[in-house]
Amino acid sequence: MLPVTPSVSQLSHVISQAAAPAFLLGALAAFISVLISRMNRIIDRTIYLNGIPDQDAARSRLKTDLPRLMRRAAMLNRAIFWSVLASISIGILIVVAFVSAFFEIQHERGVAVLFIVSVIAFIVSLVDFAREVRIALSELDHHG
C-alpha cells in the first residue's frame, strides 16, 4: 500500500530543511569549477614545459618545475575528489529528506550524518586546496 501523499505543510517543511544543503551544493559546484580551472592551468603549463627541447639551454631550466606541478596536480585531484564526494553526500541527503517525508519516516539522524559527512569531505577538500595554494607561486611561474 502506498503511503499517504504528504501535505503541503510537510513538503514545505522538507523544502525549508533542504534549502541549506542546496546552497552548499551550489557552493560546491562553484568550488569544483575553480579547482578544475586550476588543474587545467597546471596541465597546460606541464604540456608547455614538456614541449621545451632539451637543447634549448635558455628555457630547459624551466623543466625543473615539473615535479612541483605534479604535486600541485595531485593535491587538486584529491580536492576535486573530496568536493565531488561532498556533493554526492548532499545530493543523497536531499533525496533522503524528501523520500522520508513521503513515507513519513523519521530522518533527522540520517540527514545529520550525511550533512556531517559532506562537511567533513568539504573541509578535507579545502585543506588540499590550501596546500596547493601554498606551493602555487614560484619564480618559475613568471617566466615563459
Write the layout of secondary structure elements.
Elements: H1 8-50, H2 57-60, H3 66-102, H4 108-136
Transmembrane segments: 14-36, 79-103, 109-130
Keywords: Membrane, Transmembrane, Transmembrane helix
Q: Characterize the largest beta sheet: strand count, sense, and whether it forms a barrel.
A: none
Tally of alpha and pi helices: 4
Number of distinct beta strands: 0
Report the mean per-residue pLDDT as an integer.
Answer: 88
Low-confidence stretches: none
Strand-residue proportion: under 5%
Distance between the termini: 69 Å
Helix residue percentage: over 70%
What class, by secondary structure content?
A: mainly alpha
Shape: rod-shaped
Keywords for this structure?
144 residues, mainly alpha, 78% helix
Quick synopsis:
Pfam families: DUF2721 (PF11026). The chain has helices spanning 8-50, 57-60, 66-102, 108-136. The chain has 144 residues and is mainly alpha-helical.
Describe the structure.
- The protein is 78% helix and 0% strand.
- The protein is an all-alpha fold.
- It has helices at 8-50, 57-60, 66-102, 108-136.
- It is built from 4 helices and no strands.
- Helix 3 runs antiparallel to helix 4 (108-136).
- It has one domain.
- The mean pLDDT is 88.
- The chain crosses the membrane at residues 14-36, 79-103, 109-130.
- InterPro entries: DUF2721.
- It holds the Pfam family DUF2721.
- Keywords: Membrane, Transmembrane, Transmembrane helix.
